[in-house]
Amino acid sequence: MPWNWGTSAEYFDRLDGTLMPNIGFMVGHSALRRVVMHEAASRREATLDEIEQMKTLLRAGLAAGGIRFSSAWSPSHNDHLGQPVPSRCSSADELIARCSVVSEYPGTQLEFIPDVGEFSDDSFRLMGWMSAAANRPLNWNLLQVYAQNWDLVQHQLAGYDLAAAEGGRVLALTST
User: Fold this and answer.
1) Is the dihedral of CA 61, 143, 88, 83 positive or negative?
2) 109-113, strands of its sheet edge to edge
3) Which domain does 146 fall in, by range?
4) CA angle at residue 150 from 148 to 156, to 5 degrees?
5) CA angle at residue 52 from 46 to 58, to 5 degrees?
6) Considering only CA atoms, which of 131, 158, 4, 143 is closest in space to residue 68?
7) How many domains is the chain partitioned into structurally?
8) Residue 7 domain-assigned?
9) Which of 66, 78, 73 is nearest to 27 (CA)?
10) What pLDDT digit, counting tens, does each position of 55-100 carry?
11) Domain of residue 90, CATH code
């Protein structure tokens, strides 16, 4: 597909009539950071002015039909050069500010990948704050359930209580 679009709405218009049902688009945190911060997106936290610009772009993306805001802090998420994706350079305040925008759009969702392996209590608290700011459940990828990792699964599931204590609702996505 030619890259002849610049906004979420233009992208969705480009796809009109070419997709089958059962598809939804996320407005990605890294894309928002790249548009606003350019090369600095993978190097530093955003300024307050940059956060406001990204909130404006997120609003436009959700208004155009995006169904979810997605972000990741997972150390496994790197770009084609092996550098951290831009969302990994964001602060908790930036994430929470973005999630507050999601609350303005009924039917929208959150998706976040905080880490690889066992999540820290701080990760669960952050997901709780994100969920509370958006007034939406937060889906995180990916809870892999095997007989061999039962202790890890129990730890990850217990983190829901930490998120709930912060006013949020966190739901794991898993594979069948």
Assistant:
1) negative
2) 26-28, 68-72, 109-113, 138-143, 170-174
3) 24-174
4) 130
5) 100
6) 131
7) 1
8) no
9) 66
10) 999 999 999 999 999 999 999 999 888 999 999 999 999 999 999 9
11) 3.20.20.140
